[in-house]
Hints:
By secondary structure, chain A is of the alpha/beta class. Chain A has helices at residues 2-8, 11-17, 22-35, 43-52, 68-74, 81-88, 103-115, 144-152, 162-167, 183-186, 202-215, 228-231, 242-247, 257-260, 328-364; strands at residues 58-62, 91-94, 121-125, 128-129, 138-139, 142-143, 157-161, 180-181, 192-195. Chain A folds into two domains: 2-231, NADH:ubiquinone oxidoreductase-like, 20kDa subunit (Rossmann fold, 3-Layer(aba) Sandwich); 233-315, Cytochrome-c3 Hydrogenase, Chain A, domain 2, CATH 4.10.480. Helix content of chain A is 41%, strand content 8%. Chain B is mainly alpha-helical. Chain B has a two-stranded antiparallel ribbon. In chain B, helix 1 runs antiparallel to helix 2 (53-81), helix 2 (53-81) packs across helix 4 (126-151) and helix 4 runs antiparallel to helix 7.
Amino acid sequence: MEVNMQSNQTFAEIFQARGVSRRDFLKFCTMTSVYLGLAPSMVPSVVEAMEKKPRTPVIWLHGLECTCCTESFIRSSHPTIEDLLFNMISLDYDDALSAAAGTQLEDVRRKIMKDYKGKYILAVEGNASTKDDGVYCMVGGDSFLNTLKETAADAAAIIAWGNCASFGCVQNAHPNPTGAAPVSEIIKDKPIVKVSGCPPISEVMTGVITHFHTFGTLPELDRLGRPKAFYNTRIHDKCYRRAFFDAGMFVRSFDDDSTRKGWCLYKMGCKGPTTYNSCSKIQWNGGTSFPIGSGHPCIGCSEPNFWDKGPFYTRKAEVSFLGSDSNADKIGIVAVGAAAAGAAAHAAVTAVKKAKADSSEKDKA
Amino acid sequence: MGRIIEEIYVWRLPVRFYHWINALSIVILMITGLYIAAPLINPPLGEAVWYKGMAWWRYMHFVAAFIFVANFLFRLYWALFGNDKYARFGGFQPWSPSWWGKPFREQVESYLFLRSDEPNYVGHNPVAALAHFIFIFCGSSFMIFTGLAMYGENNPGGFNSTMFGWLIPLFGGSYSLHFAHHVMAWIFPVYFIMHIYAVIRHDVVDRTSVTSSIITGFKHKVEEEPS
Lengths: 365, 227
């Protein structure tokens, strides 16, 4: 019963009850519309949906993960309206945040699945182990693999929170002993939005929920299944240190003068040029900073398999199957060396044969 | 010494121009590409607006790349429609089993020192044709497609991003695509060594002036020394 009561409230009612003024509510709606790349004329639709539509019920599952996606929004030191929204979404089931546990909690999940069949959002944090029937991740007496399949069956859409659920993250990094697989490899018949990152930015998380709440559909996705509004451009292209990149002014070690001057972190292994995310635009913790802003290279946490793409602090990627000391240039130099050795050997044989043929001709003469 | 008994015009002017533009742009692409991957020069302290270090190397890479692409497309046109029997694709039919037959086998055997006589071709021999197909046609195509996919990354939804951006998920993300482009670039230095060696060896063994033919266009047949 309590579940239904909570779900019937609208976002606006929740905000009001929490002492958020209407002015702040409208500011939130406008900001979210901007993040989503919507036209100004669409703001009233967002406001209307937030005011009138009952909140979309969300079942939030935790699989093989570190809870960093959840941590990032419950640990905020300055509660923002985004945090509030996160605490206030009709989060009807979340085994990490619930006071209840055990059978009672699992019954709640089944009840939501029945009451809101085909209407609830399934938010997945973490991924499932697929090896040995998923025994490497057991939740509530069942494998997470089964729980995920069961809960996904009646969901309207799936939000894959973070890199774990989207692409596998550290769990399915080489050699992946538990057979961890991202949600999209297990659930094939539901729309999935991959809100990648380790963790994703909270505004991105709220933006995706707001979009679904307003329009009833998932936002437009890029080729890797991430919402285009947030993952369409590279960190590098919006980076405030880009001027130093173009000038060729690079940090060469973490304690040199150029570090203090805030030069480009490209040579320190920054993955900004190959990473699609909003960190250099929206930034973190209400626009306070982001990794590069704090002097640390981007590690590319919103990209597939970023753990397996070589060390975080060098540019040149290792090639895992050739040992930890190899990279693109070493492969190339070995190949060139082999070609040169081959040519030299061939030339030597040619010379010997020619000399033999000449001497035998002389013998004949 | 042998006497020149015949002069054959093999490489027409467009083919020679293609060859040297291609060679030059590959050299520039390789050097600038390696620099972009591992920039060495660090400017002295100062304002970023004073320097164009990295931007200049990348610009050179892109200029050379577009010249390389245009030149490659021209060569494709010439190979398909050019009235040039030594530069056409016509004879190269790796899908047909007969192409892999006697001439190809003889050429391979000759390179492996299994036969004493050297088969002689005016244009490319079958092994050379296959090497060019793998290194120059496939290799260049790979570098062009992956290169344009990366070039389109700074303008999502633009022409290059729409036409070639599908390669990025195919490689499993932008980083892997950059890596593949970097590794595959090394086929050109490998090819360069094989190419230079093969040309010099043929010149020494066959005495057909193949080395100078790419400048003058002419190959020569030399009368065998009377014994």
